[in-house]
Write a sequence for this structure.
């Protein structure tokens, strides 16, 4: 590090110029005017208000979102640039970018959901990575630790493009089932209630133009709040209960009815799962009603399983869904909770301040949606 100090006298007062520079590091020229720093070369050098160049800030933000901590992000910044930035500076730059994204999200929601003069979402959001054919929407929740509040739920929606797998086109496929893959994911995550999640779910869908997609599916775990906001935003979407949740429920019923790990339990569960997989849901419902529920020790949620399956038959036609090339799993949002939210934000210690957590969630949503370079 080299330091220079240049001092001179002007008529009417004293001025002091201080220069600090290092190779591949920010260059700061500060002029002290009436006790306040003034940076006359910031504009010429294209420095931000925090005196970092846009390039340095972008590298720091990227590392701040990828790293498990801001300390590790600062080390990654040094390795990438050869310069140095403290973990506190990385945190301020990263959270600052996130706050700008959060303010943008809130402004869009206010304009579209204004009680007096609502605007069309298509006129408010900027279209990004539109999906031209088949799309899927999934919504779920995860947990983050907030300072002085404890563990709180983060709600997330994930939107994906659905494509046939290579070598398995509808014409060439020997099996009646269409093999598919989900790709080009985008996310919206935040510390929201259900209605707020519904707003941002709809805005993200407009951004991806899912209203033009045919078919458009929504695979979820069957939580009432998810069903409600999805049906409200996209009444024509084909709603599907996540296969994994349906299968898991049948195993829990078998455990309650016949005992954990017993041969009768395994036989009953495997038979019902096989029937469900091949579209014979009515037989599964009949088998559920035949169980002796009065003598079972289980949670009330499991006790309601006959009604659960009976009331969701249209969302559990798994054989038809597979033949049509629809996804039947909500793995995109479940993996999104882990890779987008938990990887970066689930940590020990005091947790996040709420405003910083929301800023990070906004930033992570944009970053993992592939919109970092355009934001």
């Amino acid at each position: 590090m080299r330091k220079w100090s240049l001092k001179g006298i002007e008529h009417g007062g004293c001025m002091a110029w201080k220069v600090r520079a290092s190779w591949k590091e920010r260059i700061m020229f500060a002029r002290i005017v009436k006790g306040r720093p003034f940076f006359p070369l910031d504009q010429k050098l294209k420095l931000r208000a925090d005196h970092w160049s846009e390039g340095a800030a972008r590298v720091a933000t990227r590392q701040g979102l990828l790293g498990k901590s801001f300390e590790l992000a600062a080390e990654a910044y040094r390795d990438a640039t050869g310069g140095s930035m403290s973990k506190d500076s990385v945190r301020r730059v990263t959270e600052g970018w996130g706050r700008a994204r959060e303010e943008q999200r809130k402004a869009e929601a206010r304009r579209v959901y204004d009680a007096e003069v609502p605007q069309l979402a298509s006129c408010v959001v900027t279209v990004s990575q539109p999906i031209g054919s088949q799309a899927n929407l999934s919504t779920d929740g995860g947990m983050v630790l907030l300072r002085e509040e404890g563990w709180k739920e983060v709600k997330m929606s994930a939107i994906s493009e659905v494509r046939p797998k290579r070598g398995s086109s509808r014409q060439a496929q020997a099996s009646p089932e269409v093999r598919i893959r989900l790709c080009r994911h985008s996310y919206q995550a935040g510390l929201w209630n259900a209605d707020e999640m519904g707003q941002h779910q709809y805005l993200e869908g407009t951004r991806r133009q899912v209203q033009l997609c045919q078919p458009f599916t929504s695979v979820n775990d069957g939580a009432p709040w998810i069903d409600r906001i999805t049906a409200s935003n996209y009444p024509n979407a084909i709603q599907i209960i996540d296969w994994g949740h349906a299968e898991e429920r049948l195993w829990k019923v078998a455990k309650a009815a016949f005992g954990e790990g017993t041969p009768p339990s395994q036989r009953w569960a495997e038979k019902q799962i096989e029937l469900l997989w091949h579209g014979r849901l009515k037989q599964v419902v009949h088998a559920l009603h035949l169980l002796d529920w009065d003598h079972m020790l289980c949670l009330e949620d499991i006790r309601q399983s006959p009604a659960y399956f009976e009331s969701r038959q249209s969302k559990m036609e798994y054989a038809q869904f597979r033949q049509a090339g629809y996804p039947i799993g909500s793995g995109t949002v479940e993996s999104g909770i882990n890779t987008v939210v938990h990887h970066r934000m689930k940590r020990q210690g005091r947790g996040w301040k709420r405003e910083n957590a929301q800023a990070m969630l906004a930033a992570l949503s944009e970053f993992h949606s592939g919109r970092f370079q355009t934001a």
User: Anything to note?
Assistant: The beta strands are 2-10, 13-21, 28-33, 36-38, 134-146, 150-164, 180-190, 216-220, 238-241. The first strand starts at residue 2 and ends at 10.
